[in-house]
Write a structure and sequence with these properties.
Blueprint lengths: L1 H16 L1 H16 L4 H27 L10 E6 L4 E6 L2 E7 L12 E8 L2 E6 L2
Parallel strand pairs: 3-5
Antiparallel strand pairs: 1-2, 1-4, 2-3, 4-5
Helix pairs in contact: 1-3, 2-3
Length: 130
Amino acid sequence: MIERVKLKSSLIKALLSIIDEILVATAILLILIIIKTPIVVTLTVLAVSLTILILLFYKAYKALSKPSTLDIIGKVGEVVEELNPKGLILVDGVLWVAESSDRNEKTIPKGVKVLIVDREGLIVKVKRVE
């Protein structure tokens, strides 16, 4: 359900981000109709305008639907380079520099599953998943 809400929100935001371009394209088409340009010219301008608007919408939607780095907290990853005290973990196909949040366990070996509990800049704090 949450994913559906995020999808709808991203679609609306993408549409709102190109509203200026939609208004400009509409105004140009209205001017062409008012000055009675040949239908071929009007249809060509319409086709080009729609193509550009669809590309702009797609680009805006893709940018808005990318997961935020703030969404990383609470995800589970795998240690790919031993954390001693810092190392690398892999989460959703992305490498992160990580260090253990547990003061007693500074070293976490490669291959262990870890949970991201915090983020400080580009470094995530993790704890071992039981």
